[in-house]
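Please review this one.

:::
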Amino acid sequence: MAMTADQYLAQLQALLPSGAAWTREPDADLTNAMLAIATELARVDARLDDLVNEGDVRTATELMTDWERVLGLPDDCMANTVLTLAQRRLLALQRLVEEGGQSAAYYIGLAELLGEPGCTVSEFRPMNCNDPCTYAVGSQGDRFFWRLNIPHAPLNLAPINCNSDCNDAMQTYTPSLAECPIRERKPAHTQVVFTYSP
């Protein structure tokens, strides 16, 4: 915690020799000169406190571009995306602490780290003769698909309407910050889909 100018002034005055020439009176020229020095020391001390905050990607502001440069951000996922400072911090933190993995728990943890707590993973497999009749019918290719279930409605959801072009998507939305990094890190032989549900 940074010291104030008054605290620095008290320290500087404590270093003065005793005697009438070394006054500590509040309006004295010597006190005003030392207060100017104390003010600068307090400013530098406060900036050092700021530097401590900048050394942690979770609280960085001024050095955020340097964190991103060192961590290789923005990557292809975020190249054309405008992100808030909080989102940039989340991505940088994810990149900094990521250990990798291919389990459902890894992808759920990655989604949580990127601001999507409570996600689940659904894996698919083809139906076989031992499955109950109510089991979903799936093909052999379905075993290469998995789904990340995000427990909220998508942002900026816009379904197709009668004024839409025939080639337009059935609906558009703003994807979660977690979608692209998870696509990049999915096992190469699989496909991941994302489901949003309120």
Remarks:
- Residues 83 and 130 are 49 Å apart (CA to CA).
- The chain has a mean pLDDT of 88.
- The longest helix spans residues 29-54.
- The chain has three domains: 5-54, 55-97, 103-196.
